Predict the 3D structure of the following.
Amino acid sequence: MCIEPYIKCQPAFIQSMLDTRDQLVLPIARELRENSIKQLILLGCGSSFHAALTCSWIFRREVCLPCEAISSYSFIEHYPSNLLNTATAVIGISQQGMSAKTDEALRKAKTAGAITVSITADPESKLVQTADFTVLFDALDEKVGPKTKGYTGSVVCGALLAILYKALIKNEKDESEVILGVLPAQLQKNLDKEVRGSVLENIEKIIRSEYVVYAGIGPDLGSAEEGALKLVEMAKMPAFAYETEELMHGRFEGIRGKQACMVILFPNNPNGRNRSQDLVEVAQKAEVNYVILDPCKNSPELMSASDYVLSLINIHLCQMIACYTADKLQIDPTVPKGPRLQYLTKLSNLRQGGK
């Protein structure tokens, strides 16, 4: 499986980002402080938009400023430029730096006077040229289409930027290691025999289903969206994602018994866990297959961790599910399936000068 190495390398990858955070994000955090930022907007397309969703929760949690995630296209077409000014930071995420729409969105923000930041792995991308500042992380080696390492890296960059910015504006100690330091060990735990075996067992439920529905709350909504996308990209299975409470308000009626399987991402806050358990009970009564992703079950100490730390552990599990489902179905996740995906791949190759 050519994608599995990018999933397995993430514990060491995240540790290296923590070790080099002063070089990685501290200069950009200082620039944001110098510009007295009052609001933040995070942009992205596809996986990068899902990363923006999670990062928006992180910034609101750590910095306590208005922050929203908007798809790059919607920002270009619908966001009023007169709401942007020098106290606005617009952060564009594109793991491989190839998103023309995110580049266009950053140019719109820059023209309106906003401070622009790109988060990418490609030092030669248009985003780096367009943005005022860049958080450049090391994931350019991930050449396959479905991004796993790059996705995780972009969210960790956003988290580090938020934590360091908070430390600067409040003149407090950098707590990056305290908050995110649990991640390498927890992601390694995902890969160990016990948790990995549980993931492989649950894959049987997914394979027997016609479609899969992911459910998440708060920061886990972005992880649920990304988990569904990864299952589509790697295993070529129909998959969708909803906010957990949204599913409880009528949408569950559209989920049909044994045809479906639900993947429910449990948070670590009591109310969110109770609501997720409510969804489990509804699934049981409707005889819908379900898979529970609950890192706190095997690691109770995570109950006191930041909620977005759980979302990073959960997305790692979602990546494993997609990768091993593709392997079980004997599907090469790097080969596009269907005319639309083949067309998009051909178009991307043409834009890069290939055939």
Observations:
- The domain at 4-180 is CATH 3.40.50.10490 (Rossmann fold).
